[in-house]
């Protein structure tokens, strides 16, 4: 009808993973943590007062800033609270990109990046990974105002060495945003880079390791000058009072957090081995999901354009087992599988054995 800006009219919005309404399903498609949040979180939630709801929240989420600063060994002014990590990405595009200031990132990666580029009407310079998902050498020379590296990467689960990202930060002419939404399940992280570089922003999420995907809470780590600039484009009260209280309780319970992460990592190792035994090609993952490539025969359902992975996806769905399938050329023979509980993973494995024998 002509009401929207041209780039909005042409844009295809981000498509989140399917959210089944039934409770009796095995949901391994959107990378939620299969374990509940800390009991301390539930205690805080039960004690939320009417006064907390009546008043506007602390616009900066000071309690969480202090707690996150302690966990990450930085000062509170290095921290900014966000309504999920996705809000930080949106703010970064608004703050750094426009028609003359492009974004760059390696592909395949998180499919929200190109959506945000289109909404901001900025050029997206996409540099392909090689087959080993090494950091592309060309990324440093793009001249982009904003460079994004998802690490561990989604949907591959691959991890880029911290020293390589330090070199990229040193060479990049603009801001380097390292999306560490899945870093809770990796052996290392890039937090130290914010102390060494003025142009590095770290994105963190409370959705994965802290089991708070339903809360929508994330945060940025960066030098205070970058944080001050990002604050200019954030909503006045971008995180609510309940979310601040719950996220603060979660990040303070590091003992529970570590135990939960250890359980996910143990299941990641077991599931990877079992899938390899079934004939899948499964690279090592540093996240809470794995990317399994179907090496078996072509599709028996006539799905010639997509192949065996699409067939397995459809057959799992009929069994109320949900994984993620991406119909992109470089991913069309792969399934992204979130690490579930041992019981969920066993159900998946049992179903796959049946499907592969059909």
Write up what this structure looks like.
The chain is of the alpha/beta class and 358 residues long. The chain folds into two domains: 14-35 and 256-357, Aspartate Aminotransferase, domain 1, CATH 3.90.1150; 39-252, Type I PLP-dependent aspartate aminotransferase-like (Major domain) (Aspartate Aminotransferase, domain 2, 3-Layer(aba) Sandwich). It has 13 helices and 13 strands. The chain has a seven-stranded mixed β-sheet, sandwiched between helices. It has a four-stranded antiparallel β-sheet with strand order 9-10-13-12. Strands 1-11 form a two-stranded parallel ribbon. A hairpin with a 7-residue loop joins strand 9 (280-281) and strand 10. Helix 2 runs antiparallel to helix 10 and helix 5 (85-96) packs parallel to helix 6 (112-120). It is globular and about 60 Å long.
């Amino acid at each position: 009808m002509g009401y929207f800006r041209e780039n909005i009219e042409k844009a295809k919005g981000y498509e989140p993973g399917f959210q089944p309404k039934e409770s009796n399903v095995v949901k391994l498609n959107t990378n939620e943590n299969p374990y509940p949040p800390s009991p301390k979180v539930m205690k805080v939630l039960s004690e939320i007062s009417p006064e907390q709801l009546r008043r506007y929240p602390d616009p900066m989420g000071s309690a969480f800033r202090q707690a996150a600063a302690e966990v990450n060994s930085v000062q509170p002014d290095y921290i900014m609270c966000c309504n999920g990590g996705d809000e930080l990405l949106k703010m970064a595009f608004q703050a750094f990109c426009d028609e003359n200031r492009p974004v760059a990132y390696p592909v395949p990666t998180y499919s929200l990046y190109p959506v945000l580029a289109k909404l901001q009407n900025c050029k997206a310079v996409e540099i392909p990974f090689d087959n080993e998902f090494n950091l592309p050498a060309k990324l440093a020379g793009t001249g982009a105002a904003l460079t994004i590296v998802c690490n561990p990467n989604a949907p591959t689960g691959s991890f880029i060495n911290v020293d390589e990202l330090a070199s990229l930060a040193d060479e990049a002419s603009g801001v380097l945003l390292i999306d560490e939404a899945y870093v809770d399940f990796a052996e290392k992280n890039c937090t130290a880079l914010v102390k060494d570089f003025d142009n590095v922003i770290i994105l963190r999420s409370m959705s994965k390791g802290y089991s708070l995907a339903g809360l929508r809470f994330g945060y940025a780590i960066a030098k205070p000058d970058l944080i001050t600039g990002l604050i200019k484009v954030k909503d006045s009260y971008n995180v609510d009072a309940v979310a601040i209280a719950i996220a603060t309780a979660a990040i303070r319970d590091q003992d529970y957090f570590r135990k939960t992460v250890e359980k996910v990592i143990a299941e990641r190792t077991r599931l990877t081995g079992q899938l390899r035994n079934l004939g899948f090609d499964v690279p090592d993952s540093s996240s809470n999901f794995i990317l399994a490539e179907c090496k078996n025969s072509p599709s028996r359902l006539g799905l010639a354009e997509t192949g065996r992975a699409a067939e397995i996806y459809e057959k799992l769905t009929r069994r109320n087992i949900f994984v993620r399938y991406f119909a992109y050329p470089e991913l069309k023979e792969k399934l992204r599988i979130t690490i579930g509980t041992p019981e969920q993973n066993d159900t998946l494995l049992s179903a796959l054995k049946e499907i592969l024998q059909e």
